[in-house]
Design goal:
- The complex is a heterodimer of chains A (186) and B (758).
- The relative contact order of chain A is 0.07.
- In chain A, helix 1 crosses helix 2, helix 2 packs across helix 4 (75-94) and helix 5 packs across helix 8 (162-185).
- Chain A folds into two domains: 10-104, Orthogonal Bundle (Rna Polymerase Sigma Factor, Chain: A); 118-185, Arc Repressor Mutant, subunit A, CATH 1.10.10.
- Chain A has 186 residues and is an all-alpha fold.
- Chain A is 69% helix and 0% strand.
- The radius of gyration of chain A is 20 Å and the shape is globular.
- Chain A has helices at residues 10-20, 23-45, 48-65, 75-94, 118-132, 137-146, 151-158, 162-185.
- Chain B has 758 residues and is mainly alpha-helical.
- Among the domains of chain B are: 1-58, no CATH class; 108-263, Rossmann fold (3-Layer(aba) Sandwich); 266-362, Serine Threonine Protein Phosphatase 5, Tetratricopeptide repeat; 704-758, no CATH class.
- Helix content of chain B is 68%, strand content 5%.
- In chain B, a hairpin with a 4-residue loop joins strand 4 (204-211) and strand 5.
- Chain B is elongated and about 90 Å long.
- Classes of the chains: A mainly alpha (186), B mainly alpha (758).
- At the A-B interface, helix 1, helix 2, helix 4, helix 5 and helix 6 of A face helix 1, helix 2, helix 3, helix 4 and helix 5 of B.
Amino acid sequence: MATGEDTGSSINILYTAARDGGAAEERRLLEFLTVSFRHLAQLKMGNAGDAEEVVQDALITIAARYRDMEFEVSFAAWAYKVLRHKIMDCVTKARNRKRLMEQEYDRFEPEPTWQPDPQLREKILDCFRSISSRNRRHARILNLVYQGYTTAEICDRLHLSTGNFYVLLSRSRTALEYCLEKDKKK
Amino acid sequence: MAGCTNKRIGDRLYAYELDLLKGPEREEFEIHLVECRFCLDRARRFQDAARTIRHDQQMRAPMERLARHDEAPGPSRSRITITALAIAAVLTLLILQPWQIEFRPTQEALALEDRLLVTTFDNQVDQHDSTGLGELLTNLLITDLSESRYVRVVSTQRLNDVSGLLVRQGTSAQDPGFVRQLAEATRSRWALTGSVVQVAPVIALTTQIVDLSSGEAVASQRITAGPDNDVFALVDSLTVRVKQDLRLPDDASREVDPPVGSVTTYSIDAYHYYIDGLRFLQQAYFDDAVRCFERALEFDSTMAMSYYYLAKMQNRDAIDKAVEYGNRASRKEQLYILSLQATLSGDASAARGYLEQILEQYPDDKIALFDLGSMASRSGRHAEAAAYFEQVLDIAPLNRSAYNALAYACANGGDVDQALVWIDSCIALFPDEPNPHDTRGDIVSASGQLDSAIASYERVYRLKPDFANYATLFKLSRLYIYRGDYSKAQDCVQEAAVGGERIIRSVARTYMGLIPMYQGKLAEAESILSDGIAADRLEQATTGRYGDRSMKHFIRSRIFVEQGRFKEAAAEMRLAIEVHHLVYSSRQPMYRCSLAQVLAEGGDFEGAAEIIDILREEYLNNFEPAQFAYWYASGCVELEQGQPTQAAASLEKAIEALPDYDGQYMLGRAYVEAGLTEHAIANLEAMMSNYPDRWRLILGLWTARLPFYLGLAYEQAGQTDRAVVQLETFLNTWRNADSCLTDVTVARDHLARLTTTP
């Protein structure tokens, strides 16, 4: 039984197979990447069209270079870097500005094209009310997030170690996810 | 569906969605999303919800209300009733549906993690497991497996918590679905069940490991002890086989696997007593727990964790032995030991560091969280303490100690209503356990609710008369005295004197003197204390923090002062210092400031000044305890010299250093004599309802006078009715007092003036 450490994820298996195999193996690897790339790109870009363009661009770069690359960390880390650079290039062009600095990546937000869904908001709030009656920490943490506190500041205020904070957050999310899915089934 | 490829990073998903990850952490997580399909799918499914939570501005106001709802200070009593009902409802919910929020019934991949649950071994040879062999094997196996870096095993604490919850829910441990429920509740993918199938000539066990995500048995074993029937060696062999069955990474086979006996004990008897001690500890039967740990050490004098618990509960010196034999404990336990050692040596920061190390590796470790809460509590950071104790309750909703500590933290933080909500919730869960009632008594007693406190302590007495080594019985006797029920107080003390061990008998003999002393019957009290001292000498009962021989000398000294026998008073106080010094030779002797006071009361200002000089020297050399002593002695001398304003200033500094009962009383007196009426009233009114302080009774001659001085203060403030009530209370308490107590005459004069003046 593993202790939670990476024991060889499927992407590494796919990468090895693609590197040593033919077109079919390469297609499987790129299909695998497409799903995660789309998700990450949409989070940053907001616009689905732009995001798809960035993803395709990144995949072309990866397909062209991955066989010849020697990876410092892992294939996944390199592939992610490729996507990230593509996203930054695209945002730089779209916003008509100088190239983004690497450290600005964290800070830029997608253009506000997204509109909230009032029904979903109500469902989420209902779940929060239900969860808060048993565990108020989730509401407390979110309230602090809304007020702009960083992870370190929240941990300091709630007297939590960072590791413990993530575990608590993870549990709260599971509870919320379960509550929302339960509601869906109704 | 496969699980997360890296749980440590996977746990950060929500933090990522809330945009709490920055820089390298964010990058690490995004790389993880590229490679972990499990987390990616979770993120995609939750994408709309995450975006709504993060970006929808209209989420913020309701969320703020939810967060603040529980944090609003000082709720009204009517709201508290509602809160109490709500809490009770939540508790019911927790009991009935404890895991509802954590589990998705159909998607095991989300609920179950790569963790092993070891269930209690079923003893098929002895159905009632009267020798405790099944429990012992389970504990040892969990301990041994926990030493591996490659196995995540549910801790014994967690196993007991969850089993307790399920049993409360109505599930019997014999139910076929019990193991599955346990595994789901602990999010364990694998469950190991075992049976003792033979005990003679040697023990034989059968075990089975089931993968609960598929429902299939992964492996089964039959294992027999060697010819010497060594349980510890048997568990070691079983551990090796379990690790093989779990198909751990290759490195696991190369890791050092210490024999379980080397991190616990090699004595079965010692281990049995140790487990019993832990059980008593959980129920707050501290004296029983202490006895068990002591017995464990009789069988194995190197059992580090027994020393650890003894040091924690009773004998702080035992920590040295715990450290000495620390290599006979598991890695986590070694950190507990180091943390306690740091705490006892006053290094809170190091203690905290060790506990945080534990939490890094075991985020759900209740003991570490609880200890962090206790540390915060001791430092007066009550809100922080409460937050830790709440975390313990999040992990273990039936943890009695956490309820208890939470109640104290709220009470000490000034929120008595919330404290009562917590402790009443605990009482609702464990109505037949004495400790929650005792805590309730403490809380209401501290808030001045004498009758309610007595009712709680009486409940404790009915459940366990000797609870906490008669501590509750002594508390009850004190409250009876304050209520004027002297015969009931006498009964309590008698019971402790008959049933208690040597130090308890000594305390009881002191209380026997305190009962008449409180009523102003000085000669009777002095005679009883004199007999008590003789008995203490016979029994050599000089040890113990309170009620020991030095305390009796101290009390007699105060009696002699009241009787005008100042030389004897000073001699008696010197004896108190001497005996105390014998007992606590390594620490600074107590009572020196009291000796200065006695000398000044007898007119020996020169003698008092000599002591004050010594105290000042120590104080200036940063010896912390001398700060209170110096200012206290100075204030008392100034008061005797007729400088009450100056005395009040010194005594204010004294209680700023240490808010002790004697300092507060003398300050109240100084305020009255200085004509600082408002201050005097505020001070004395607060003291009137400070029931829990044991010095309230030890200094009973002063406590009985509180209404006298408060009456005088009211009189100064022109509040005649209140003054009359207080003076009458005082005269009633001292209605049979010895004639040497001249305050009785003064009070009568004042009362006559107040009641006859139009």
